């Protein structure tokens, strides 16, 4: 039992650490040592809000007293008296001092609240102010319910209507406050989600993190579906954090404002409620542990299922050519089965917990009657006090049963924290260079130089090339050949800076002077203009320049079909592979690098078009490294690098190299 409690405590601490890593950076720059500063600022914010409530209420009552003294004395005399007690006693000085301390605390850290970090604090303060206001009104309503009930029993007409008027004023005041509270809470959630998503996107695209994580290789990574983590998990996390935090704070306010009222009416009822709520909440927390893992798995299975359908959409033509509908249906159905099976378990556990929830809630209904029946029947308590006690009891019950009401939300929240923080931690590990096989150290040089370079597959001991030496100067060209799987493309990855080398040294031109063109070119989610200019600014070239380049790479039909260069289409689906490869050469000509790496970049083209494109590179004196199997390719290169299956290599003049027939 002790071991189980210790494990639960460690799990809770771990979740709180993860929660802080995700939450604090939006409100305060994150360091390992400033966690208590973050907590202190939250407390300081409460001081600021508490003082603001007192000052605003005092000012409002002074204004009403001056404008309508008779009405104020008749309907709001209790509020006036309460304010007098506060300001005539030590409470006013204490609240004012804490308010000043809160303001001073934020002034001292104002340098860390730049870059609009002051905005979430302001919104959070406004939301807490509204929560305090509404809960203050609710506390007053309990007294009004008591007085209205007693006045009705005594058939006191004037007192009944007066209190009903006050009750109506309370509801009118609370309605806009609750409405604005919803708006500001949703606004804070939206701004936080925008900030968090942008932060995750930046980290994901920085230092080729997206490439190193390699999310599509399910056997090589524990970070599945980064798209879902950045979109849905970030959305759910921010919404759930704000919702749960405000609900917890609201529950604490309700408890603080109503516990003393209920104690003044019945100590026995107060004690019974606290003991009952503690027992039921503990039982539910113990029983709900399975929910947390099921919710985590459900998010993953749902994302896998959605990705399977996206995969079909992105590869629709290839699947159609293969008539692979049956195989795709089996795979998508397998992913759907994981969703359904896990959700079935989720339904069972949630149903069992609902039984426990309802049992606990229904059982609590009897407690006020059991405890207070005796005093009412003996005449020690009037019915108005019972109604007030019952209302206070219900408010306190809601705050103490917070965990019972939110157990499913807490389980989903825990899953969101785990997935989002795991994604963030993996990206941090990459930034801290903990992925050794992707630590790329390349020196800048005007040439491409490889000295005793050995290459292996990342994460494995599969060596591909040993002790390779070569150099490529401006205007020179090299053809890389060899059997499939010998490491040709791996060599290009190392030269392009995607893979780290096991030993040796690589020198390449600076970024922008070396461009890689794969066999299947990358098509962006943009206009034709953006396709051509990628990754440069789309406004860098005129329409005439872009059209001339398309003519140059033998793509006049594209201009005829799409005369408007700003039109957006699904280019990967609309263009054939040959058209995509020619468009990639147009992009290459516009980027004008000194060196270009071509990985079977003309495999879908006829021999004459291939010759024409290589002649364009030669005219512009671009040095190139090509991978290919066509014997005609050697006509456009000075040297040939042949890589063998036994990690060996040899460098020969292209004129003397002979392709072997397989």
TrEMBL record:
Membrane topology recorded in Swiss-Prot or TrEMBL: Multi-pass membrane protein
GO terms assigned for molecular function: ABC-type transporter activity; ATP binding; ATP hydrolysis activity
Protein name from the UniProt record: ATPase
Domain ABC transporter: 448-661
GO CC terms of this entry: plasma membrane
Coiled coil feature spans: none
InterPro entries, A to Z: AAA+_ATPase, ABC1_TM_dom, ABC1_TM_sf, ABC_transporter-like_ATP-bd, ABC_transporter-like_CS, ABC_transporter_sub-D, P-loop_NTPase
Record organism: Prochlorococcus marinus (strain NATL2A)
ABC transmembrane type-1 domain mapped to chain residues: 126-412
Superkingdom, taxonomy of origin: Bacteria
CDD domains documented for this protein: ABCD_peroxisomal_ALDP
Residues annotated as transmembrane: 37-65, 85-109, 121-144, 164-184, 244-263, 269-287, 360-378
Keywords for this protein: ATP-binding, Membrane, Nucleotide-binding, Transmembrane, Transmembrane helix, Transport
Matching Pfam families: ABC_membrane_2, ABC_tran
Location(s), subcellular: Cell membrane
Cell membrane is among the record's keywords: no
């Amino acid at each position: 039992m002790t071991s189980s409690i210790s494990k639960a405590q460690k799990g809770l601490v771990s979740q709180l650490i993860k929660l802080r890593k995700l939450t604090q950076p939006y409100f305060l720059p994150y360091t390992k040592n400033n966690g208590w500063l973050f907590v202190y600022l939250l407390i300081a914010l409460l001081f600021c809000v508490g003082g603001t409530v007192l000052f605003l209420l005092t000012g409002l009552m002074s204004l009403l007293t001056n404008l309508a003294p008779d009405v104020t004395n008749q309907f709001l005399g209790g509020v006036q008296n309460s304010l007098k007690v506060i300001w005539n006693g030590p409470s006013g000085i204490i609240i004012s001092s804490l308010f000043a301390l809160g303001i001073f605390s934020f002034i001292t850290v104002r340098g860390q609240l730049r870059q609009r970090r002051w905005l979430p604090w302001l919104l959070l303060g406004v939301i807490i102010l509204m929560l305090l206001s509404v809960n203050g009104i609710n506390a007053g309503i309990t007294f009004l319910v008591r007085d209205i009930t007693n006045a009705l029993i005594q058939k006191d007409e004037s007192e009944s209507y007066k209190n009903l008027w006050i009750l109506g004023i309370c509801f009118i005041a609370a309605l806009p406050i609750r409405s604005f509270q919803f708006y500001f809470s949703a606004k804070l959630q939206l701004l936080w989600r925008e900030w968090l998503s942008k932060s995750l996107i930046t980290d994901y695209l920085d230092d080729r993190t997206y490439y190193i994580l390699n999310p599509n290789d399910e056997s090589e990574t524990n970070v599945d579906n980064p798209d879902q983590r950045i979109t849905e998990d970030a959305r759910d996390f921010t919404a759930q954090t704000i919702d749960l935090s405000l609900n917890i704070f609201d529950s604490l306010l309700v408890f603080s404002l109503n516990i003393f009222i209920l104690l003044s009416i019945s100590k026995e009822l107060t004690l019974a409620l606290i003991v009952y709520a503690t027992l039921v909440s503990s039982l539910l927390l113990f029983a709900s542990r399975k929910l947390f893992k099921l919710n985590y798995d459900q998010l993953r299975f749902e994302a896998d299922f959605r990705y399977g359908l996206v995969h079909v959409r992105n590869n629709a033509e290839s699947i159609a050519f293969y008539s692979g509908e049956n195989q795709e249906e089996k795979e998508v159905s397998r992913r759907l089965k994981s969703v359904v099976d896990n959700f079935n378990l989720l339904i069972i556990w949630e149903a069992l917990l609902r039984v426990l929830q309802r049992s606990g809630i229904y059982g609590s209904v009897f407690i006020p009657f059991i405890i207070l029946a005796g005093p009412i029947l003996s005449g020690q308590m009037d019915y108005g006090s019972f109604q007030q006690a019952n209302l206070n009891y219900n408010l306190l019950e809601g705050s103490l049963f917070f965990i019972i009401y939110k157990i499913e939300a807490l389980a989903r929240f825990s899953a969101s924290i785990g997935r989002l923080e795991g994604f963030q931690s993996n990206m941090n590990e990459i930034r801290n260079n903990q992925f050794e096989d992707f630590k790329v150290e390349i020196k800048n040089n005007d040439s491409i130089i490889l000295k005793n370079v050995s290459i292996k597959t990342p994460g494995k001991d599969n060596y591909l090339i040993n002790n390779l030496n070569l150099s490529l100067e401006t205007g020179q060209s090299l053809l890389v050949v060899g059997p499939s799987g010998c490491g040709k493309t791996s060599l290009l990855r190392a030269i392009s800076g995607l893979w780290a080398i096991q030993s040796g040294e690589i020198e390449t031109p600076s970024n922008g002077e070396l461009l890689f063109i794969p066999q299947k070119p990358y098509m962006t989610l943009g206009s034709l203009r953006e396709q051509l200019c990628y990754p440069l600014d789309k406004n860098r070239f005129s329409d005439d320049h872009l059209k001339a380049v398309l003519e140059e790479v033998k793509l006049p039909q594209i201009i005829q079909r799409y005369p408007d260069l700003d039109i957006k289409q699904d280019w990967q689906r609309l263009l054939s592979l040959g058209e995509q490869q020619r468009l990639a050469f147009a992009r290459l000509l516009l980027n004008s690098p000194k060196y270009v790496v071509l990985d079977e970049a003309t495999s879908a083209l006829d021999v004459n078009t291939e010759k024409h494109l290589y002649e364009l590179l030669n005219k512009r004196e671009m040095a190139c490294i090509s991978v290919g199997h066509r014997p005609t390719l050697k006509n456009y290169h000075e040297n040939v690098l042949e890589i063998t299956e036994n990690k060996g290599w040899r460098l020969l003049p292209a004129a003397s190299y002979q392709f072997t027939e397989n």
